[in-house]
Please model this.
Amino acid sequence: MYNLSDTIAAICTPPGTGAIAAIRISGPDSWKIVNKIFTKNTQCLAVGTKHCFIHMEAVHGYIIDTENVIDEVIVLPYKSPHSFTTEDSVEIFCHGGSKVVSIILELCLKYGARIAAGGEFTFRAFVNDRIDLTTAEAINEIINADNLPSVYNASTNLVGSLKEKIKIFREKIFNLLTAIESHLEFPLDVPQLERNQIVNELSSVWNEMDYLINTSNQGQILRTGIKISILGVPNVGKSSLLNQLLESERAIVTDEPGTTRDTIIEKTLIGDLPFLLVDTAGIRDDIKVSKAEKSGIERSKNSINDSDIVLVIFDLTKGLCEGTKKILGLLDGKPRIVIGNKLDLCKEDINKLYKCDVFISAKYGNNIDSLRNLITGEAQNIVKNTNGYHQPYGISINQRQRELLLQSNQSIQNAMNGALENIPEDLIVGELKDSLSKLDEVSGRKINDEIIAGIFAKFCIGK
Ligand SMILES: Nc1nc2c(ncn2[C@@H]2O[C@H](COP(=O)(O)OP(=O)(O)OP(=O)(O)O)[C@@H](O)[C@H]2O)c(=O)[nH]1
Ligand SMILES: [Mg+2]
Model:
């Protein structure tokens, strides 16, 4: 897939200008290459004195081409096997001008490095057994995480929690497998395991694995965002509320009922959590509505189904009208927050008039923070419940891992059923081997090149 024996180099900071940029070089010639373009002392340019690098000892100096100083830098060398890739490596921290950093990279290439493909450094770390596949995937997930809980999810796997769980499953299944096989091979010397014992051991693994499989929902919801639909009859302030929550004039607001026709979907953070906010067309039964508005109303109703939370908003000056009550009737058991809007227009004591979760003024922003708190409260419950372990945030597996664990657990289920039905032991052994091989695909212990290539292709250059 990749050549593993040469020296690779890449810029590992994002393109564009910044205070500092970093270039990473890894492979057998990395120290030698950097020595060709680095000097501690600008007086010795022509002489090109070699610097004696020491593992993890940062050195201040200059990058030079044949006769000019290119930049003032810090060089950080790593001696094999104590580096990310386990190879001799160097990181060069230079000034973050887009030209200067590309000149330094070109110098590395000129003296023998090859430009690295996306994910190639992590690939080397994986092939050289420094990390397993779950850790490699966690590295990519933490790079792409756009909210704090997703960072927590990824970092849990980064420090090896998932790797550890897979290892424990593997050990338990492997021990059982060898016990059954030993008896098959040496029936006189090794006692046969009781069928009950097999079922008991496997059911504890099955339960643990089932919990783990359910954690994928949390990762999924944090990646896409918790979906919130804003529903109400026309003109109650749905779009005004969307704009308040986004802190931008995203949706058109007018005093004409039926302004919003199509659903408007925007991603945003509220507190630390990611949300997909959906502004909908006001729901009304009026037979005179245009075809476009009619379709919009259909979409509004449909959006209830795939929402995690629904905000039902009504106009306090008009009260809880029949239309709003009908909408509330459509919600079934959906988590909802009922919002009384246009508080600024109310003179009476609304607490006595209406029962709802929060009174706001979407136009002027009154009580929007209280609404945000209610939303994050509901959302935290949802996110917590999407984690198999009912923890706020923790291990969360991705789609690839989920598919494999489902298959692994199915084989465990088959083995348990087989044990209860007294099927021959070699059939149980077959199921356990299948289960193990799926676990090995999760960790990357045994996996085909094509899948590996697909995983690392998602990585950015320099990682
Ligand atoms: N005074 C006052 N006016 C508001 C408030 N919220 C919205 N409005 C006004 O009510 C009208 C309708 O607001 P929108 O946000 O467009 O209402 P909508 O529910 O999206 O309406 P449709 O898209 O037509 O269903 C506009 O004139 C807003 O300025 C509020 O809190 N106070
Ligand atoms: Mg609107």
Q: What stands out?
A: The chain has a mean pLDDT of 92. The domain at 8-132 is CATH 3.30.1360.120 (Gyrase A; domain 2). The CA atoms of residues 2 and 120 lie 8 Å apart.
